[in-house]
Amino acid sequence: MWVIGFVFAATGIVTAAIAAHQPALLAAAGASPELALLAASLTGPAQVGARLLQFGLLGNLHPLWTSRFACVMQGLGTVALILLGGPAAIAFTLLYGAGNGLHTIARGTLPLAVFGPVGFGQRQGLLSAPARLLQAGAPLAFGLLLEGYGAGAGLVAVIALSLAAFAALFALRVR
């Protein structure tokens, strides 16, 4: 429970922080205002595309692997943005959005796969509570981080949270 709760909290922080600051973050990373808005507008389609891919080609993939894959996608997108700057805005958004789309599926399927259906509703509530509390403060904290230390610090925080969630997923054992 602790591991999944941590993963949900870490990925929820990333989701809330990026959702609130994505155009400004992309602009600070070197994208023109037009490119930043265009890229940010692709988040939703990337989420839907990843979900469709998961239901189609990746439908047999275990939720644990779906979660790991989602963390890696978000981390890789962030690394691309750090290394390539503004020109990677669309790549970042597509990878971030796809990872976020897969995380939304994993939030429901991972606990079910790990613990089974008994007590599912109560378990979901317990797992979601810390994530929701942290998500509420994530945009403010991320905004302060960006304002005080710049886009690089914010992107490093995203990578750190994505990697921490990815690593934590290896502590899970499936029945």
Descriptive overview:
With 175 residues, the protein is mainly alpha-helical. The protein has a single domain (2-169), classed as MFS general substrate transporter like domains (Growth Hormone, Chain: A). Helix content is 83%, strand content 0%. The protein is built from 7 helices and no strands. Helix 1 runs antiparallel to helix 7 (151-169) and helix 2 runs parallel beside helix 5. The radius of gyration is 16 Å and the shape is globular. The mean pLDDT is 93.
What brief labels describe this structure?
7 helices, Growth Hormone, Chain: A, 175 residues, mainly alpha
- What structural category characterises the helix and strand content? mainly alpha
Number of domains: 1
Number of β-strand runs = 0
CATH topology: Growth Hormone, Chain: A
CATH superfamily: MFS general substrate transporter like domains
Straight-line N-to-C gap: 14 Å
- Sheet having the most strands: none
Count of DSSP H/I helices: 7
Low-confidence stretches: none
Q: What is the level 1 CATH name?
A: Mainly Alpha
Query: Mean pLDDT, as a whole number?
Result: 93
- Oligomeric composition of the shown chains: single chain
Signal peptide: 1-19
Protein name: Major facilitator superfamily (MFS) profile domain-containing protein
Transmembrane segments: 35-57, 69-96, 149-172
Keywords: Membrane, Signal, Transmembrane, Transmembrane helix
